[in-house]
Structure formats: C-alpha cells, structure tokens
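Working notes for the structural subgroup meeting. M.R. asked for a predicted model of this chain before we commit to crystallization trials. I am recording the input and output together here so anyone reviewing the notebook later can reproduce the run.

Input as submitted:
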Amino acid sequence: MDDTLFDQVGGQPFFERLVDGFYDVVETDELLRTMYPEDLTDSKRHLVLFLCQYWGGPSTYQAERGHPRLRMRHATFHIDKKARDAWIIAMTSALGSVRSELAQDQYDELLAYFDMTAHQMRNV
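Returned structure, recorded in token form:
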C-alpha cells in the first residue's frame, strides 16, 4: 500500500477533480463567490497544489508561494459562522462528487481535515 493519501488516491488528478467540484459550488454561492477573484484559475491551481502538498505530494505550493500560512492568507476576508458553514457545505459537496474514488477511511480523514480547517479560518 502507498504511504501517503496523495499516492493512495492517484495523485494530483484526484485533487483537481475535488477542487473542480468545490469551485462548482463556489461559483453559484452568493456569499463565497464574493471572496474570490472573477477569474478562478489561480485560486483553483493554488488549492490543488496546497492539497497535494498537504496530503504528501510534491512541495510545489511551498516552492511557488512559500509557507501556506492559511490564517494569514485568509485574514482579509470576513469569515464568520455563516461563511464557514458555506465553505464546509461546498467542500462536502465536492467530496461527495469524488466519494466513489475513496475508501471510507480516506473520506473520513479528508472530511475531518476540511472541517477542522474551516473552523480554524473563522476570524469573526
């Protein structure tokens, strides 16, 4: 068995599908959409690279953007309970779109991470 979740799920293509599913929801969510630039290309790429690195893939994100510093990068956004909940809904929907590709423990681990991260980003 492969050591990292990155390897277990098939590498970057999996995270690209996950992020596409996430941004499909973001694009139609009135609250979340205002937090992103009009062109989502860079936002999508950054999230893919971050998730790849976090889950054991290449460190391209850090090489290009430095330490993730998630709270600092999100500090300019008003992230209250409503925004946090909208983000969790979007990411849970994205996980649902790739659910068939995941074992139960992988799904649970991803879901727990995204839930924890969303709570940590709350700044209001």
